[in-house]
Amino acid sequence: MKTKLLLTILVAGLLYSCNQKKVVTDKKQEQVKEEVIIELTEEISTNKLDKEYKDYTENDWKAVLTDDEFNVLRKKGTERPFTGSLLANKDEGVYVCAGCKTSLFLSETKFKSGTGWPSFYDFIEGNVENVKDESYGMSRIEVVCNTCKGHLGHVFEDGPAPTGLRYCINSVSLNFKAD
Ligand SMILES: [Zn+2]
């Protein structure tokens, strides 16, 4: 009888200590999660003015962007093909918005399209928005940054697997952050 009681106490003690360990692990995981969230927030909070992007005036954008960035991001301009600094970039990393630094495309989705503009077959979920564009007598889908609504380029349906899409993006709309 005594042995049974001792055994029960032992098992209970063991279970308790296991449980404690799990609590510690959970806490650690939570901490990691928090750190990741803070990192992501820092990444997108490079807003230089004390107002939301939607309230930026043209002059505000002119103050924080270069002339080329302003013409493409805010005026929907297109850089000349084969001139972009990121066209031939093959390094591993993340392509972020030149206007607000939001992460937009991953290097593993970049491919050589031969068009003269950086091309990707996919974007980072939630950070890029597709908008109907009927300008210049064409029906196209414009691609904009979901955070600052800056113009990035267009998307076409002649890309490679797995999506079959080609995000044709101006180099000037992007900054590159190596891994
Ligand atoms: Zn942006």
Describe the structure.
The longest helix is centred in the first third of the chain and has 43 residues, at 2-44. Helix content is 32%, strand content 22%. The chain has 179 residues and is α+β, with helices and mostly antiparallel strands. It starts with a helix and ends with a strand. The protein is built from three helices and nine strands. The protein has a six-stranded antiparallel sheet. The chain has a three-stranded antiparallel sheet with strand order 2-1-9, with no helix packed on it. The protein binds zinc ion.
Q: How would the blueprint of this fold be written?
A:
Elements: H1 2-44, H2 58-64, H3 67-74, E1 93-97, E2 103-106, E3 110-111, E4 119-120, E5 128-133, E6 140-145, E7 151-156, E8 166-169, E9 174-178
Antiparallel strand pairs: 1-2, 1-9, 3-4, 4-8, 5-6, 6-7, 7-8
The structure holds zinc ion.
Write a compact overview of the structure shown.
The protein has helices at 2-44, 58-64, 67-74, and strands spanning 93-97, 103-106, 110-111, 119-120, 128-133, 140-145, 151-156, 166-169, 174-178. With 179 residues, the protein is α+β, with helices and mostly antiparallel strands.
Gap from first CA to last CA: 63 Å
Q: What is the CATH architecture annotation of the domain at 67-178?
A: Beta Complex
Radius of gyration: 24 Å
Q: Low-confidence stretches at least 5 residues in length (pLDDT < 50)? A: none
Strand order of the largest sheet: 3-4-8-7-6-5
CATH class of the domain at 67-178, named: Mainly Beta
Q: What attributes characterize this protein structure?
A:
179 residues, alpha+beta, six-stranded antiparallel sheet, three-stranded antiparallel sheet, globular
